[in-house]
Backbone:
């Protein structure tokens, strides 16, 4: 009998990553292509990148549709029922049979791949997103509605606060801050005369890339950078507080808290966030720090759903939308 394969997909704004592993085990193979978030690259390009990359991956592995046992897609920016319908149509056009494919928001996927309800998931990377889970209630969400109006406490949010103030300084209407030197070095800007032009040409991912530098200054005792990081913590704490109130967890109910995203890879940011969270949520909290990326979470879920490994998410889900 010919070997069957599992497919895990990270469909993001800047890249689409396909991972494959045979049902019998072995190494996971990775293939990376252009972004497939339709709100970022446009629906036509997203469709092309997602579909063509699937068949390019199959061709590279010498596979056909009949060789795919199951596929899980983790999709950043899949935030509304309309988003789910758009991606469901895209993935459906690949041609896999019904029951072979599941679609998840990347925050939800991180939680389900790590633990079981009741609990919370906080994603804080370039963007941010918070979700609450309960075995007997629908999933709730707060934040994560895009960088323009939402994504509080994210890497982009932190970097934007500092870079906005840095622009004011360069325009002569704001004070100098030590962290500005670190940001300029990060972007390889020689002096401040060209800051405005460089910043104006950046996208969200490039802006967020300097967050690591800002957190280093915060950890090192820089008062201004520490204040920005603390404000980011507050943004996330308030989203979580809103979710716990809306979900109405029983006070004695222990909650699993899944933390995912690049900000939590900074130990100082993680410790400050967790210490403050415990003082704001009355429930017993169990931390699950997920260092895996979306494609790795998707592969873990694919193994559970399609690889013979039992999973009981204990979460109400709209399977009519997720399940093709």
Residues:
């Amino acid at each position: 009998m010919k070997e069957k394969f599992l497919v895990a997909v990270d469909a993001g704004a800047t890249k689409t990553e396909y991972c494959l592993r045979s049902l019998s085990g072995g190494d996971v193979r990775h293939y990376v292509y252009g972004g497939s978030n339709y709100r970022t690259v446009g629906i036509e390009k997203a469709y092309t990148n997602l579909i063509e990359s699937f068949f390019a991956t199959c061709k590279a592995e010498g596979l056909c549709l009949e060789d795919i046992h199951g596929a899980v897609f983790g999709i950043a920016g899949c935030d509304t029922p309309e988003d789910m319908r758009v991606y469901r149509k895209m993935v459906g056009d690949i041609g896999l049979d019904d029951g072979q494919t599941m679609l998840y928001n990347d925050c939800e996927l991180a939680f389900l791949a790590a633990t079981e309800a009741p609990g919370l998931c906080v994603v804080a990377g370039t963007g941010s997103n918070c979700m609450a889970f309960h075995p007997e209630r629908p999933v709730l969400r707060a934040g994560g509605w895009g960088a323009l109006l939402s994504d509080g406490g994210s890497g982009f949010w932190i970097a934007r606060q500092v870079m906005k103030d840095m622009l004011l300084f360069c325009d002569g209407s704001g004070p100098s801050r030590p962290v500005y030197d670190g940001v300029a070095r990060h972007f390889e800007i020689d002096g401040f005369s060209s800051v405005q032009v460089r910043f104006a040409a950046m996208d969200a991912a490039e802006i967020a890339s300097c967050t690591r530098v800002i957190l280093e200054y915060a950890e090192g005792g820089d008062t201004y950078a520490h204040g920005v990081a603390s404000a980011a913590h507050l943004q996330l704490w308030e989203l979580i507080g809103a979710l716990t109130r809306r979900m109405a967890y029983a006070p004695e109910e222990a909650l699993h808290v899944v933390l995912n995203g690049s900000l939590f890879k900074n130990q100082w940011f993680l410790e400050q966030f967790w210490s403050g969270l415990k003082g704001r949520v009355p429930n017993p909290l169990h931390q699950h720090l997920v260092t895996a990326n979306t494609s790795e979470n998707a592969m873990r879920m694919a193994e559970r759903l399609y690889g013979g490994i039992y999973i009981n998410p204990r979460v109400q889900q709209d399977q009519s939308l997720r399940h093709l």
About this structure: Confidence is low (pLDDT under 50) at residues 309-324.
